[in-house]
Amino acid sequence: MIKEIIVIAILFISTLSFSQSTNSSPYSLFGIGDQVHLKSVEEIAMGQMGGALNSEYQLSFTNPASYGNLKWTTYVFSGGNKTNFVDDGTDKQTSSAAALTYIALGIPIRGNQGLAFGLQLNTAVGYSLVDQSFDSDNNLTGIDSYYGNGGTNRVFLGYGYKFPFDLSLGAEIAYIFGNIDNNVLNRRANVQLATQQITDSNVKGTTFKVGAHYAPSISEKLKLKVGVSADLESTLNEDGDQLLYTLINLENSSGIPIDTLNNEGYSSKIKSPLKTVLSAGIGEDNKWFVGAEYTFQNPLEFTGGIYENINFYRYEKFSNISVGGFYIPKINSISNYFQRVTYRAGFNYQKTGLVVNDTEIDEYGMSFGVSLPMGLKISNVNLGFELGKRGTTENDLIEENFFNFRLSLSLNDRWFRKQKIY
């Protein structure tokens, strides 16, 4: 019981970290920020492939049907650091941001059911951009500064049921909430006043997910695993205040408004169409697995409020292809610790759906990781590493080369066991 209390206290304290700056990408300026991968560290280390996975002691967030396979109470929390190497075709810069990404608890029920709930980072905003303009004689004529932070989180509750004939079904409900601040400062040379616009918005809404998992045996050891999940169509509501004012045009200006030009509220809607995940693979339980996953979704729709007159970016169809797997040399080895380590690797290619200046923003990456057993128990420390690239320097855009490091702790125990008296 003491261990459970300590873990719950750690998870409670960790929730405070969700309020920190969680992103350092210029592309988080658009919409409600970068969509965070709603996957475990283990899934991301396999190229973001996880819809076909199920485990007795690990959580897979891609497919809620996997919760029906839980045999151990599993509590996990994860954090990570992203380092961006940004190139605009002229200058190069480096930025980084660290954040807690999820905390969750999975509980088996009666041997063929599972319940999971937790808190995840959903989208992240964090950018600071400066755009300078010059005349024909190369004299500075203006500076536009863009700054934003915040994002959204999701609280989720998922349930999975495993049938005797290798089929599992599951469902999940989540509540999205968060706050986003965007700030634009326009300064012009030889002009007494500058103009600043601040947008403070709140985002909220409910989403639903359903999933199915089928894992028949095709030989004495081998299993075919197939997973299908779908985020149902949903709508998020965004409302907030938009403030436009003037201030003294000095670099060290305190930003105190001199004259308010406009101060009004607004409301917008973000419609997310059906998002489908198809995943399949083959492997041997607790030994190895290799699989592939395809995710696709029609364009996001932003209407009303601050999205009414935007024409320099839009959204088109999203898709992602992932391939990955894992290998465990000998899970029950006593003499050699490294034979009980799980080794993972994978890669993915993503069409993000974001189009800026009529240019599609694509992303691809390769990842790898390990799960390090804690003593002789099934609890693990999970490490994940990802190298990737997003965007391009064409059409006055920005290219990002990034390195992600992720760390999670997965603790397992037997709860609700009947005491036996001998």
3D structure, described in words:
There is one protein chain. This protein has a single domain (2-117, 149-179, 202-232, 272-413), classed as Outer membrane protein transport protein (OMPP1/FadL/TodX) (Porin). The chain is 4% helix and 61% strand. It is built from two helices and 19 strands. It has a 14-stranded antiparallel β-barrel. A hairpin with a 5-residue loop joins strand 4 (113-134) and strand 5. The longest helix has 13 residues, at 2-14. The protein starts with a helix and ends in a 9-residue tail after the last strand. 37% of the residues are buried.
What gyration radius follows from the Cα positions, in whole Å? 24 Å
- CATH H level: which superfamily? Outer membrane protein transport protein (OMPP1/FadL/TodX)
Identify the strand order in the major beta sheet.
2-3-4-5-6-7-8-11-12-15-16-17-18-19
CATH classification class: Mainly Beta
Order of helices and strands: HEHEEEEEEEEEEEEEEEEEE
> What is the general shape?
elongated
Report the CATH architecture: Beta Barrel
A few lines on this structure:
With 422 residues, the protein is mainly β.
Chain-wise SSE layout:
Blueprint: H1 2-14, E1 34-35, H2 41-44, E2 73-87, E3 92-109, E4 113-134, E5 140-162, E6 167-188, E7 193-214, E8 222-231, E9 234-248, E10 259-272, E11 275-284, E12 288-297, E13 301-303, E14 313-315, E15 318-327, E16 342-356, E17 359-373, E18 380-391, E19 399-413
Antiparallel strand pairs: 1-4, 2-3, 2-19, 3-4, 4-5, 5-6, 6-7, 7-8, 7-9, 8-11, 9-10, 10-13, 11-12, 12-15, 14-16, 15-16, 16-17, 17-18, 18-19
List descriptors.
422 residues, mainly beta, Porin, 14-stranded antiparallel barrel, 2 helices, elongated
